[in-house]
């Protein structure tokens, strides 16, 4: 999918919401456990109830790998369901991959071609030749970890490397890589004040922002510091939406939670 | 597996060789493509021919993910085959995972419990709470990326952060994490001179060393700077062994290549 198509969808839905499909069998309503594929049944119900409110879905691959082959089947069914029924929706494989060149190419093929995702999250530690293989796919997007929303972000990401924080060095360096137009960045909402500085380096790149809600980040602050003319933001919410209720009404409850965020986004988009 | 058991195996086999099972269907002998599961057939033949020469096997998960569900089945069959027939062998899931705490725990369960690997490679960018969930598993090992063997290692890993190179900061910081005894480290052989400095920080930790052979590293140099009383090294070779021949004699050729390395290792172990 092109970035332009994503922006069009944002304006059409008045939403820049991404829903994280981090499905844990211990947390989904117990009646679903009787289904042949409880994970897919859960995802399908969530997608059916929320697709008009969200512009992106982001399954974190860890939750699927944890269930072995059955988990991978559920992931494949989920991405196929999205691509077949909602091709306008932007899909993110939250996989945090990255390896030496030849191997990153295998990951890129797996997620972009075999699975059919629009984008994948990638870790920057191994540098240029671990990321460029992902960037070479047309109309596919590589979402580079810059500043994550967890406590461990303070271990290395915000420490100074050659006069600037590591996460800034990662962003600046990544701009020199081949096909860097296909880059987006993960920037946690728990550190919204950093967004102003990030916007000086990458004024228009899309940012995938986790950490609003459950992890304490504020939607208003993120938009204040990070929103641009092209919007340039995808705000992710996972648990706050998909586990809004653990009973039979889980899908309706998820839609209600998603709608609250979408309405806040609509107000922000209208008043900017 | 305990580290002691790994060391015992090293002395018994006079080898600290790890064989990388990075199976690419475009590179394996064409007669195997007729098999029901060509990847597993290839791995089984390689393992049968080399298990007395190697102390560890390391499938890189990218090569399996690239073939979707069938690839994951091949990976599961491979690790099951190793655990059933050669339980003394150390197994490494070269997965380079790492995510926020809750999610890393899912990855740890997937690779340690569901798949039954002894160890997994993990990326350090997200810090403490992305790695500690892996460290909490007893007799399982977390192999942290420190200094990789690719060109992109120069982008961030060897740059100075607060007075020392990032890779050193990663190693030093990781020593403060809970259950850090379960850590091993990836250190590329293409930079053998760095090993002396690394050994000042972690004198006895096991190092997984890729880049000998195909990527230009020297076995002698790696041992000179990195070998300790407990040996403390696993030297990985992938393509140089598994693709030694692309004809029907591939397994015999792989054993020959592995034996050349094993004999060099035997000489080094005897003369130290």
TrEMBL record, chains A, B:
<dbReference type="InterPro" id="IPR001754">
    <property type="entry name" value="OMPdeCOase_dom"/>
</dbReference>
<dbReference type="Pfam" id="PF00215">
    <property type="entry name" value="OMPdecase"/>
</dbReference>
<keyword id="KW-0665">Pyrimidine biosynthesis</keyword>
<comment type="pathway">
    <text>Pyrimidine metabolism; UMP biosynthesis via de novo pathway; UMP from orotate: step 2/2.</text>
</comment>
<comment type="similarity">
    <text>Belongs to the OMP decarboxylase family. Type 2 subfamily.</text>
</comment>
<dbReference type="GO" id="GO:0004590">
    <property type="term" value="F:orotidine-5'-phosphate decarboxylase activity"/>
</dbReference>
<protein>
    <recommendedName>
        <fullName>Orotidine 5'-phosphate decarboxylase</fullName>
        <ecNumber>4.1.1.23</ecNumber>
    </recommendedName>
</protein>
<feature type="active site" description="Proton donor">
    <location>
        <position position="96"/>
    </location>
</feature>
<keyword id="KW-0210">Decarboxylase</keyword>
<dbReference type="InterPro" id="IPR011995">
    <property type="entry name" value="OMPdecase_type-2"/>
</dbReference>
<feature type="domain" description="Orotidine 5'-phosphate decarboxylase">
    <location>
        <begin position="16"/>
        <end position="254"/>
    </location>
</feature>
<dbReference type="GO" id="GO:0006207">
    <property type="term" value="P:'de novo' pyrimidine nucleobase biosynthetic process"/>
</dbReference>
<keyword id="KW-0456">Lyase</keyword>
<dbReference type="GO" id="GO:0044205">
    <property type="term" value="P:'de novo' UMP biosynthetic process"/>
</dbReference>
């Amino acid at each position: 999918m092109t970035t332009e198509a994503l922006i069009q969808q944002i304006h059409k839905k008045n939403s820049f919401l991404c829903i994280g499909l981090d499905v844990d069998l211990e947390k989904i309503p117990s009646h679903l456990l009787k289904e042949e594929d409880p994970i897919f049944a859960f995802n399908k119900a969530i997608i059916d109830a929320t697709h008009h409110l969200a512009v992106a879905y982001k399954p974190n691959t860890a939750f699927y790998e944890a269930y072995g082959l059955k988990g991978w089947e559920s992931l494949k069914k989920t991405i196929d369901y999205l691509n077949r029924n909602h091709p306008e929706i932007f899909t993110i494989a939250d996989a945090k991959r990255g390896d030496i060149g030849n191997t990153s190419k295998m990951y890129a093929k797996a997620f972009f071609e075999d699975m059919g995702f629009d984008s994948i999250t990638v870790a920057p530690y191994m540098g240029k030749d671990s990321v460029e293989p992902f960037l070479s796919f047309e109309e596919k997007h590589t979402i580079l970890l810059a500043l994550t929303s967890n406590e461990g972000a303070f271990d290395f990401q915000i420490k100074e490397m050659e006069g600037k924080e590591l996460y800034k060095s990662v962003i600046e360096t990544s701009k020199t890589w081949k096909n860097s137009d296909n880059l987006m960045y993960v920037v946690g909402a728990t550190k919204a004040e950093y967004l102003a500085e990030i916007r000086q380096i990458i004024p228009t790149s899309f940012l995938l922002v986790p950490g609003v809600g459950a992890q304490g980040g504020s939607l208003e602050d993120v938009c204040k510091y990070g929103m641009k003319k092209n919007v340039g933001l995808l705000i992710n919410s996972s648990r706050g939406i998909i586990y809004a209720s653990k009973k039979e009404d889980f899908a309706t409850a998820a839609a209600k939670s998603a709608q609250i965020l979408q309405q806040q986004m609509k107000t922000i988009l209208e008043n900017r």
